[in-house]
Amino acid sequence: MKKIFAANWKLFKTPQETRQFFKAFKEVSSQSTGELVFFPSAISLEAASQELVGSKIKWGAQNCYHQASGAFTGENSAQVVKDLGGSYILIGHSERRSIFGETDTQVADKVAFVQGLGLTPMLCIGETLQERESKKTFRVLETQLQLGLQKADKSKPLVIAYEPVWAIGTGKVATPEQVAETHTDVFNILKTLGFETTPILYGGSVKPDNAGELIKQPHVSGFLVGGASLEPASFAKIASV
């Protein structure tokens, strides 16, 4: 299975900075044999679209609504992403859940809608530090997957990104042993649900110096990278492991 290396830029980079990044990244990314996916902020999506025309590099939005258009102020349209040439939509990131109150029901609607458009949903799951310390990790991930995928089409593309909430932007990173154990759990849950061929990415303070060890763990199909994806050389190094 081809590895997937995805970059979540969150609320960073102007359109001009986005164009500059891709000009530089194209020069240093030749060593990567995996699929490269970028999630710029909404205002920079068109800049990414224009800069990546004719490139093998894919891109998408960090969020969308579960309808193509309408009176939904402040939301993003997955249909527009598709029309601009995008391929992916990031869904259910922990910051969407914790800051904006996104529910598993909303996540399920978005997954189904995105698949229906012919785009690929990248569904994020993960537990908090309190949940891990209370030994609730498996139960939390199982619930997020069961509910988030309840309307999903097993015949259409889907990617899962496991991101322990306690390791996102904190500098903390799960140990290789923790990653191996949890990715095996996620794989087994997906298998039970009928999604056993779905790629599972790891996210959570992935950097060039730990990517090589983490990619070796079972059922790790690539990475969803935050801060370390903001510099061309840094992300290119991660994507070449």
UniProtKB/TrEMBL annotation:
Instruction: Report the subcellular localization.
Output: Cytoplasm
Q: Does the keyword Transmembrane apply?
A: no
Q: Which GO terms describe its molecular function?
A: triose-phosphate isomerase activity
Listed GO cellular component terms?
cytosol
Active-site residues, as the UniProt record annotates them: H93 (electrophile), E163 (proton acceptor)
Under Enzyme Commission nomenclature, its number is 5.3.1.1
Query: Which InterPro entries does the record associate with it?
Result: Aldolase_TIM, TIM_sf, TrioseP_Isoase_bac/euk, Triosephosphate_isomerase, Triosephosphate_isomerase_AS
The record's principal subcellular location, in a coarse class, is: cytoplasm
* Pfam families, per the entry: TIM
Would you kindly state one Gene Ontology biological process term found in this protein's UniProt entry? glyceraldehyde-3-phosphate biosynthetic process
Work out whether the entry's keyword set contains Membrane.
no
The pathway it acts in is: Carbohydrate biosynthesis; gluconeogenesis; Carbohydrate degradation; glycolysis; D-glyceraldehyde 3-phosphate from glycerone phosphate: step 1/1
Per its record, the protein catalyses:
D-glyceraldehyde 3-phosphate = dihydroxyacetone phosphate
Family per similarity comment: Belongs to the triosephosphate isomerase family.
Q: What does this protein do?
A: Involved in the gluconeogenesis. Catalyzes stereospecifically the conversion of dihydroxyacetone phosphate (DHAP) to D-glyceraldehyde-3-phosphate (G3P).
Assembly, per entry: Homodimer.
PANTHER family listed in its UniProt record: TRIOSEPHOSPHATE ISOMERASE
Q: What is this protein called?
A: Triosephosphate isomerase
Which source organism does the UniProt entry give?
A: Bdellovibrio bacteriovorus
> What gene is this protein translated from?
tpiA
